[in-house]
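Practice problem: predict the structure.
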Amino acid sequence: MSESYKYNPGIGHVGSYQVSGHPWMTGSTLAGNEEIQINFPYVTKSVTVAQSGSGNLRVHFVATGSMNSPAGCKWEFNTTEDALTMNVRCSGIWLSNGHASTATGYQIYAEMTSIKAARMWALTGSGISE
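Answer:
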């Protein structure tokens, strides 16, 4: 008997968020005024971002296009070893360094569901991109 349909969990699959996520980690350095996108291989259950340098690390869900984005659209770290944990469903985040001349380091730990990142929609709206 051949299997013509293989079940894959989707965004609304509650069980994917109730079980422990599988780990995913990365880290690097951002130059002054640099902005990068971090794409996750699967939809996240939670994301922790930590600053490991002396710059001005910012976390946001969309590209800012400039370092002067509205205050409500980013989380800004102000000291080395600041950390933020977000229980959030997303397929990627943006990081930027708001300091013009000082590089800063970052570390990211994410708990992944088994939901493929391609199933996640783009995050927009008040508090995200406005």
